[in-house]
Design a protein that fits this description.
The chain is mostly beta strands. The protein has helices spanning about 25, 65-70, 75, 110-115, 145-155, 215-225, and strands at about 10, 15-20, 40-45, 55, 90-95, 100-105, 120-130, 135-140, 160-165, 170-175, 180, 185-190, 200, 240-245, 250-255, 260, 270-275, 275-280, 285, 290-295, 300-305, 305-315.
Length: about 325
């Protein structure tokens, strides 16, 4: 069996953040880069410049995701992605020990004026502290004028709708939706390949460099959907947690001995092991917290214990905007 038929795993890219922690160390058994630093994000699968996923196993070890996408696209990923210059999705693990900034991703008309990239995303709650809060959308009745006044008065948090989800729940964050992850979450984030975010409020704190982090108040005000009030956590439709023109995410619950392969013949998928363990035909095992690329012609994986997996696919077409 060739390496291309086996799952492909990548070395995570870890990012330090003032709001981060070390939960990935004890929840997922990972070795973080430095013992004295806090890490808010692990970019599990990424094709950006300069951030790049690098294959960590097999005959393609050392190749970047961009090299696979550029030079081995049809063999690894399948047909139908010819017009996408980079792998169109980005997968992260977020470890929030403190509140993230209240932020928004811009719509098309703002991107056309200010530049940047589209960014629809979803969050899957892998773990959270009791009572941990997500800040999503506006409270009912908050107008643009009231929100602008809150910015001036430093009371933005009082305008944002609060959710207290449970592990296993998820929510889609479309462009224009005001949002922030509160303290106490471990989250799998699936998003378009974009890093354009506008911060409107950062809790009046300092960054790791001891200075206030940059805010983007005017761009945020131009981006926020002021009609997006008091959303709820998403309710799955069958196995489907989220579906848009850029990606589809399903949750697969497997018993011992069940198998899981690509849902569409000849096209790849990405798997995120939420809990449990999968084993490949060659005997490699993929445990809790692992993200992997299942190539187009890969053999199915077998659950070694009761296992929950997020499976992400691209829609027909190239998945670009």
């Amino acid at each position: 069996m060739t390496t291309g038929m086996e799952p492909i795993t990548f070395a995570p890219v870890y990012l330090e953040h003032v709001w981060g922690g070390r939960a990935m160390e004890h929840v997922y058994g990972r070795t973080l880069p430095r013992p004295d630093r806090v890490y808010g994000e692990a970019w599990e699968i990424v094709d950006r410049d300069p951030e790049q996923s690098v294959v960590e196993h097999g005959e393609w070890a050392g190749l970047t995701l961009h090299e696979l996408w550029s030079e081995r696209r049809e063999a690894v990923f399948g047909a139908g992605f010819e017009d996408a210059p980079r792998f169109p999705l980005l997968f992260k693990v977020l470890d929030a020990r403190d509140d993230l900034s209240i932020q928004v991703h811009p719509p098309a008309e703002v991107i056309a004026r200010l530049g940047g990239e589209f960014k629809n995303e979803m969050w899957y709650i892998a773990d959270c502290a009791p009572g941990a809060k997500l800040y999503v959308g506006l409270k009912a009745g908050v107008t643009r004028e009231a929100f602008e006044a809150a910015i001036r008065e430093g009371t933005v948090a009082a305008c944002v709708h609060v959710l207290t989800p449970q592990p296993g729940e998820s929510i889609f964050i479309p462009i224009g939706r005001l949002h922030a992850i509160g303290a106490g979450f471990l989250i799998h984030e699936i998003q378009q390949n974009s890093d354009t975010t506008y911060r409107v409020f950062d809790w009046n704190r300092l960054g790791l460099d001891g200075k206030p982090r940059q805010l983007h108040v005017a761009a945020s005000l131009a981006s926020i959907d002021f009609d997006d009030c008091e959303p709820t956590m998403d309710r799955p439709v069958g196995d489907t947690l989220a579906e848009c023109r850029y990606f589809k995410t399903t949750r697969q619950v497997l018993a011992v001995g069940d198998t899981l392969g690509n849902p569409e013949a000849g096209r790849f998928s990405i798997l995120v092991v939420v809990d449990g363990c999968l084993q490949s035909a060659a005997g490699r095992q993929f445990g809790k917290g692992q993200s992997l690329l299942l190539p187009r012609d890969a053999a199915p994986l077998t659950a070694q214990q009761n296992t929950t997996v997020l499976q992400v696919t691209l829609p027909a077409g190239d998945g670009s905007q």
